[in-house]
Each structure stands twice: as structure tokens, then as C-alpha cells.
Backbone:
């Protein structure tokens, strides 16, 4: 298949794309699922009113969908977790208009995954990817956009961008890995002594405040459970004098269509539910996404957002737990740094080169930062992954 044989369509929403066609390309990543992305649009969490306008790119061969990219026109840089505010300021000081810009990403989700969704049966995926990226560039030039950006691509999507000369920006996040632990004590045993002591103290402090925790799957979640979670979620934003990105309707959509991908962790104090965290479950990864508390309870955030999900991963034999963006404090809870990236193409050649110089300097500093993080590893020795399988251990609370 040659790019000249492809026809391209820009869709103003996922509802313009057949769900089965999209799903064949999206694979098993839960946050690329048709219903997950549709939830943002169907509940108005993305749209002109929020500065996230869907503009998904699709490619067809003889009427068959063979490639797609989740894309959005952005009028700001909120909810991306790849911070380019200084680029916007520099571009506008030079007399340009940085917004709107075009991004390929999962809204409000700093989660690595495919961005160039190409039918694996295609003979020439690199040629299709090249044609797709050139479509992004042509779209930016046609509509006088400042540039296009791919956020948190997987290795294959990153390679395609690299081949086309897009600018790579380095990043770092924190991830916990289940190294074949048979139970919580096995995990604790591989930590350094001071980290074990700290975690035990934090968990004991939570228990002493009369807190217990339980796990509710998406299939078992009630309307009351979801309402409690959303109340807690909103409370977190209120404490920071901000407004939540997502609505209760968004989470209701996920619970209705993707219950198997949801895990809710609820904390109760003296029998009263007071906090909740909601995670998204993939094949090998649990993604920690949303949380909130109705009361200020010391160390509860660590218990509900880290320790309870880690125990869940041990019990259910889940290999990775991603705790969300940023947070060096995760190192002390068994997480380690791992690299992320984004790719960028700027329409103005001089600005493109200026950003390239900035990114080279930034990458040097990022490497030093990663080296420092590795020196602060919480482990006595980095554990090896046990690929022979894990026994099923009941979850303790």
C-alpha cells in the first residue's frame, strides 16, 4: 500500500467513526478504547467550550479504515502534562499566535500509549505513518496553526516521529513494578531499611485514625459509590481553588461501558466513607488517575493512592502501577523513575530551530535529573521480574 492510495478524513468527533473500525486499530489500551475517548466528547469534557476540539485524523484504503490518530485543536495548554507555556509566550512575543495548536493525546491523561494507530496487517506501516504525520503538518500550514504535538507516544509512534525529524522532548514519570511478589511482605523485604520503616509508620498512622479500606470493581460499583468518589474528586480541586476537568457524567459513562477497566478504592473512618481513588486497569498496568478526600487524614493519600493499589497489583498479578504525573515523593513508596517523551513539529522554521536548541539544553538537564533519581532508588537491589506467574493472594486492608 502506497500513501498515494490513501484517502484522509478529519473527523470532528468519534461519532463520525465506526466504533468497530476504531477498536480494531486501538487494540487493548484502555484509554484508547472507543468508549473511553467518546466519554470525553459525549459528556462535553472536551469541545469548543473547554478548549479541546476533537479533530481526529483517519486514513482509508479502498473504503477501509487503516490508520487513525486521536487529535485535538487546543486553545490552551491545560490538561496536557507536557508544559509549553514558555514556548507560547516566546512565540507571541515575536508577533505570532501560538494557539490554537494541534495535539495527538489522551485528554487529561499523561499516559504513554500508541498515537499512530495503524492496522497491523498493513504491509508498509512506516509509509502510512509518514503520510499521517505529513497530513498533520499540512493541516497546520493550511490553517495557520503554530504546530503539531504528539504527547506520551509509545516506542513505535516515537520511532515514526523520529524518522520524520520531529523534535523529541524528554520527560520522566514514576512507576511501580511488581517483581513477582507473593505478598506485601515480600515487596517490603526488597526495600531499603529506612523506606520500610517509613511505609510502616505511614500505614500504622492511617490505621490508628480508624481508617479501613476496601476495593470495588467497576462491575460492583453502585451509583452511591460513584457519587462518593466524585464528591471526593471535586473536593481536591476546591482545595486548590480550581475546577475539575471531568464531570460525574464522564465517570458514569465509563462505569456503564467499561466497568471491567475500573477499580475504586474507598477509605472509611469509623464506618463512614471519607475518601476514594479511581484507577483504570489495563492488561498489564494499573493506572492511578483520580482521587479525593472529604477530610484531612494524615497519610491517607499514600494509603489510598499508592499502598492499596500496589497490594491490588500483587493480588491480581498486575505487573505495573503508574501513579500519575510528577511526584518525587513516590520514590519513597517503591516507585522508580522511567523515561517518557513527546514529539513536536513547529510550523515556522526559525521557531522550530529555536525550540530544537532549547530541547537539546533541556535534555542535558533531564539526564542529570534522571541520574540523581536513580541514585535515590528505594530498593536494596533492583528486583528481577518473575515471569513464571504469581500465586493469588487475598487482598489485605
Residues:
Amino acid at each position: 500500500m502506497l500513501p498515494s492510495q490513501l484517502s484522509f478524513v478529519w473527523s470532528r468527533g468519534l461519532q463520525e467513526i465506526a466504533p468497530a473500525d476504531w477498536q480494531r486499530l486501538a487494540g487493548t489500551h484502555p484509554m484508547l478504547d472507543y468508549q473511553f475517548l467518546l466519554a470525553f466528547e459525549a459528556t462535553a469534557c472536551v469541545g469548543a467550550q473547554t478548549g479541546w476540539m476533537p479533530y481526529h485524523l483517519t486514513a482509508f484504503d479502498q473504503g477501509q479504515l487503516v490508520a487513525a490518530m486521536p487529535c485535538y485543536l487546543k486553545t490552551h495548554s491545560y490538561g496536557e502534562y507536557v508544559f509549553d507555556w514558555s514556548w507560547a509566550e516566546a512565540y507571541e512575543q515575536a508577533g505570532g499566535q501560538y494557539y490554537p495548536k494541534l495535539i495527538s493525546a489522551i485528554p487529561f491523561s499523561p499516559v504513554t500509549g500508541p498515537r499512530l494507530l495503524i492496522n497491523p496487517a498493513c504491509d508498509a506501516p512506516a509509509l502510512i505513518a509518514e503520510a499521517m504525520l505529513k497530513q498533520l503538518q499540512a493541516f497546520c500550514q493550511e490553517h495557520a496553526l503554530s504546530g503539531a504535538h504528539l504527547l506520551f507516544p509509545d516506542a513505535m509512534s516515537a520511532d515514526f516521529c523520529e524518522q520524520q525529524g520531529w523534535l523529541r522532548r524528554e520527560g520522566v514519570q514514576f512507576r511501580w513494578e511488581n517483581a513477582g511478589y507473593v505478598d506485601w511482605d515480600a515487596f517490603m523485604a526488597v526495600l531499603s531499611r529506612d523506606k520500610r520503616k517509613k511505609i510502616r509508620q505511614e500505614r500504622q498512622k492511617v490505621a490508628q485514625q480508624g481508617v479501613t479500606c476496601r476495593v470495588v470493581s467497576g462491575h460492583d460499583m453502585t451509583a452511591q459509590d460513584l457519587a462518593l468518589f466524585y464528591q471526593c474528586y471535586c473536593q481536591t480541586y476546591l482545595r486548590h481553588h480550581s475546577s475539575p476537568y471531568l464531570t460525574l457524567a464522564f465517570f458514569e459513562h465509563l462505569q456503564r461501558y467499561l466497568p471491567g477497566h475500573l477499580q475504586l478504592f474507598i477509605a472509611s473512618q469509623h464506618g463512614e466513607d471519607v475518601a476514594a481513588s479511581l484507577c483504570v486497569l489495563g492488561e498489564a498496568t494499573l493506572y492511578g488517575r483520580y482521587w479525593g478526600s472529604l477530610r484531612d487524614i494524615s497519610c491517607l493519600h499514600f494509603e489510598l493512592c499508592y499502598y492499596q493499589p500496589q497490594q491490588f497489583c500483587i493480588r491480581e498479578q498486575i505487573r505495573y502501577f503508574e501513579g500519575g504525573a510528577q511526584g518525587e515523593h513516590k520514590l519513597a513508596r517503591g516507585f522508580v523513575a522511567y523515561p517518557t517523551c513527546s514529539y513536536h513539529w513547529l510550523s515556522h522554521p526559525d521557531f522550530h530551530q529555536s525550540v530544537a536548541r532549547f530541547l537539546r539544553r533541556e535534555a542535558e538537564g533531564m539526564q542529570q535529573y534522571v541520574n540523581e533519581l536513580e541514585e535515590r532508588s528505594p530498593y536494596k537491589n533492583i528486583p528481577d521480574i518473575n515471569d513464571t506467574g504469581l500465586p493469588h493472594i487475598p487482598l489485605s486492608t
About this structure: The two ends are 55 Å apart (CA to CA). Residues 175-337 form a domain with the Aminopeptidase fold (CATH 3.40.630.30).
